[in-house]
Write a structure and sequence with these properties.
Elements: H1 2-13, H2 18-31, E1 35-37, E2 50-55, E3 59-64, E4 75-81, E5 86-89, E6 95-97, E7 100-103, E8 105-108, E9 121-131, E10 134-147, H3 168-171, E11 174-175, H4 181-192, E12 201-208, E13 213-215, E14 221-224, H5 227-242, E15 249-255, H6 272-283, H7 288-296, E16 299-303, E17 306-307, E18 329-332, H8 343-356, E19 360-363, H9 376-383, E20 386-391, E21 393-395, E22 402-405, H10 406-420
Parallel strand pairs: 1-2, 4-15, 4-16, 16-20, 17-21, 18-19
Antiparallel strand pairs: 2-3, 3-15, 5-8, 5-12, 6-7, 7-11, 9-10, 9-12, 13-14, 14-22, 18-20, 21-22
């Protein structure tokens, strides 16, 4: 168990962006014997084989085939997302101001903006530049406290403790010290390995530079950035690699862009997952009818963080179904289909957890408050299959730093493994 948690911390700390999260997941899968596929080539799949295909460098689908494939057995799918709320750097807008290099940002997703201020921030992302043989794409990570977004002093904002509103354009520019935009460009080019004479384009993000770590008197808490939703990505990959052979084909889908609506070529609300599943059936000798038969017999487990009850804000929760840290996997339901869980899928999952001794609990949002969502509804709607949404309970969701329970992550990984074994 300690090994799994240590591996989770390493995965989070090595994955400051969705690009890194996908690349690190792919590398772990390759080390476990998964062969890489290209979407642009014809697939030749073998029964019992293990494969992974990546899109945009920020999303992937990995799958394990049974020794004997049958359309009636269907798929067992684990889904999660690689992206987290954060701040994307607008590199061309960098400028000198009051003898300091200030770099503007765009807010990605629903970040709690105040949590990004006055803390050490690193820079990471991907660089793209043209070469005579095509485009070169490199990931890089400046894992140093290079930037800070300074707050305004209390003396100049006496009401700050009453709740401050931060304008992203005016208040969230990152300070990189007494440097110039050219200095920043050279540092990025060096990190990415871009030739000096070649202009590069960047997908560049700030990230909380303090590593994820254990905390609490009993070291039973996980404290770190991007727990939503790298914990689920980690659990999905661990389950796919470690689960014993099953009758159904096992699939893990790590999607990008969940935090901004999933509408992209590599998001859950795209044809990526559906097309890969169809290609699997066709490559194994099935036809169009078999594709539909296989989907009809499939089930999906959508894994994304859930809200744990916050002891200081008890009035924000529905006392009838509020998950606690240390209580196990939370089964999430919502009548407006913000989650894809039904009574059928919930009891099927809960029964499996009871049989395996895995703790689980329930989550529903307060009836007078809007409910968040995840990729479960999009995936099940596009595929037409049974699904449910679950997650580990966390505090401070969408903060630059979140808190979860160690035992809950162990429970999620065990539940994902049990889900694949049908």
């Amino acid at each position: 168990m300690a090994e799994l948690i240590d591996d989770l911390l390493h995965y989070i700390n090595a994955s400051p962006t969705a690009f890194h999260a996908s690349a690190n997941a792919r590398q772990r899968l390759q080390a476990a014997g998964f062969a890489c596929l290209s979407e642009g080539e014809r697939w030749s799949l073998k029964a019992g084989g293990k494969y992974v295909v990546e899109r945009n460098g920020s999303a992937l689908i990995a799958f394990r085939l049974p020794a004997q494939w049958s359309a009636a057995a269907g798929f067992r799918l684990l889904t999660a997302h690689t992206d987290s709320p954060g701040l994307k750097v607008k590199l061309p807008g960098s400028s000198d101001a009051a003898n300091l290099l200030m770099v503007p940002v765009e807010v990605y997703g629903g970040a709690i903006l105040s949590t990004w201020l006055d803390r050490p921030l690193g820079l990471a992302g991907r660089a793209v530049w043209a070469t005579p043989s095509g485009l070169e794409v490199r990931l890089f990570n400046l894992d140093e406290p290079l930037a800070v977004i300074p707050n305004l002093a209390l003396h100049l904002n006496r009401d700050v403790n009453q709740g401050a509103a931060y304008n992203p354009r005016q208040h969230l520019s990152a300070c990189l010290g007494q440097a110039s935009p050219a200095d920043l460009r050279r540092r990025l080019d060096d990190a990415a390995g871009c030739p000096v004479e070649t202009p590069a384009r960047y997908d560049l993000f700030l990230y909380e530079q303090t590593p994820a770590q254990l905390s609490g008197l009993k070291r039973d808490l996980l404290s770190g950035p991007r727990l939503d939703n790298l914990t689920s990505c980690h659990a999905a990959i661990a389950a796919l690699v470690g689960a014993p052979a099953a009758v159904a084909a096992s699939v893990a889908f790590l999607a990008d862009h969940e935090e901004v609506g999933s509408v992209s070529a590599q998001g859950a609300n795209s044809a990526f997952l559906r097309d890969v599943l169809h290609r699997i059936v066709l490559a194994l000798g099935g036809d169009a009818e078999d594709c539909l038969r296989t989907l009809a017999g499939s089930r999906l487990l959508s894994m994304d963080s859930a809200h744990a009850v916050h002891p200081s804000y008890l009035d924000k929760y529905d006392s009838a179904a509020t998950p606690i840290i240390g209580g196990g996997v939370a089964i999430k339901t919502n009548v407006s289909q913000r989650y894809c869980t039904s009574a059928l899928s919930a009891e099927r999952f809960a029964a499996k957890c009871r049989q395996a001794g895995i703790p689980c609990q329930a989550f529903t949002n307060r009836s007078d408050m809007p409910c968040g969502s995840t990729i479960g509804p999009a995936c099940t709607a596009l595929l037409g299959m049974e699904g449910l949404d679950v997650g580990t309970p966390i505090l401070a969701m969408h903060s630059a730093r979140e808190t979860a329970g160690v035992q809950d992550h162990l429970a999620l990984a065990a539940a994902a493994t049990a889900f694949l074994i049908d």
